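Homework help thread (please don't just give me the answer)

Our assignment gives two proteins as sequence + structure token strings and asks us to describe the second one. The first is just a warm-up. Here they are:
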Amino acid sequence: MQKALRIYAGPAARRHIERHGLGPRDVRIIPGAAGGPKGLILGPLDRFIFGEWLAQSAHEVHLVGASIGAWRMATACLSDPAAAFARLEHDYIHQHYELPPGRKRPTAEQISREFGQSLQAFYGGRVAEVLSHTRYRLHIVTSRGRHLLRREHGLATPLGYLGAFVTNGVRRRALGAWLERMVFSTPGAALPFGTGDYRTRRAELSEANFKPALQASCSIPFVLQAVHDIPGAPRGAYWDGGITDYHLHLDYQAPADTAGQGAGLVLYPHFQKAVVPGWLDKGLKWRHAATPFLDPMIVLAPDPQWIRDQLPSGKLPDRTDFTRYGMDWRARAKAWGVATAASRQLAEEFAQWLERPDPGRIGPL
């Protein structure tokens, strides 16, 4: 059978696996990338990791997510995460928007309103469950606008994003003049990464700001509306966390294990090998390479040839499918369902590898 799973690791993570293998206790941080429908391919891995494998341990794990990755990581904090992930997968696959009369596509206001209703239905009455999880510390990444982007505006917002695009092309850190990284964290939880790379603020999650923060983290500019003035955080417009941190290429620093156990590794179920820093870096290939930030990281990703051979249209589900299938959302849902069913092979292969971790299957990041 054609292999579906590729495993990549930074130098520190590889050394640990060569000497000790990999156990649940070794994992201290799990990131969840932005990427919209691409995240669907990780559903079976999520169900296995959170529903079975990590359940064998009792240590603290930090979950860091942006956009759909934030939705996935928040879902992991619910009781019976396997069932919660199955519902997330179903709800995401079957999302569709009825067009207003005379329009060819839904408005940003409509998508934002209906998405907010979906989040309320999904987490309604369960926010305390997420924030009080005995083991998991959640960190939702958003992008807060500055200067021209401090409020959403018909003229200022496009000009602000043009400035952000140009500035980012010169230097990633300079993007902070337009957008800063704003992280909403479980109360009392320190950030599990350094912030010297980029302008960063932190606020604590609460019942009042959980849904606005999560919706902001998923709010793609010009597709959804910005979320303004989130309670407990600086005033301003908040957008998709993937703008500043597309794949969460962060300076990971796992908190010390007071028991002296575990390796402090970062386990990253991802949909590709490269960990791209920001959304505006997608076309800047020189920023796709690994850095020392990723030394303790293990990436689990689908094999590109398996994607081409086994998935509908030879690709991962992605946002272009909304255009490809148009109003025929049932055909899109069917294709996405086929892809997610095929991705069960990823979880099965990872479970098999964990029984006898073979360093020979690990490629460099």
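The one we have to describe:
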Amino acid sequence: MKYQKKSKKPFVFGITPARGGSKNIPRKNIKEIFGKPLIAWTIERAKESKLLDRYIVSTEDQEIAEVSKKYGAEVFYRPENLATDDATTLSVLKHAIEHASADLVVLLQCTSPVRDKGLIDQCIQKFFDSKADSLVTGFICNFYEWTKYNGRRQDLKGWFHDDGNVWVVKADSIKKAKTLEEVWGKKREMFLIDKEQNFEIDDEFDFWLNEQILKKRLS
């Protein structure tokens, strides 16, 4: 049975963390990529969702806040100590849900600007249908450390790699967890997406590659 938004249901809270300090690419989260700030691509997909009850951008940076508001996002300010290089994703999520009602948390990293239309809701729907504790997007990786595998490439079974595009997790798990591993729970669902959506932006090459993908998909 498909999940019906009108029925009594958990409150689904979407969040995009976006701090101002980026070392590899200065001001990365608002750097223009194919005609708009990087963060705008994620905001626009989140706003299309029919299953997110609330969506925020979490930041300490005023310029990021203004850009996010321009593209229609609600902004949630976090303290400076949660915007350092050492601040963890878990700590940012904990802070956000301390100040907001949430049963389910959907993390949407702005470093993954390439998302199919409807991907967010597909992930949320599968989470509900499968009665999962957590769901993440990703792909089957066939890379192995040198000398650790000597068989044929076509015989590789591979392993699931979390690409960071969409996470769906229970708010209670976030509240109780001391480490990210504890957030996932026992029933973990994988949501395989195509290669174009797998690339995160960590450096200038990633940025260029994502822009080429956006151009290909939208031109």
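TA reply:
I won't write it for you, but here's a hint about the kind of observation we're looking for: The first strand starts at residue 12 and ends at 17.
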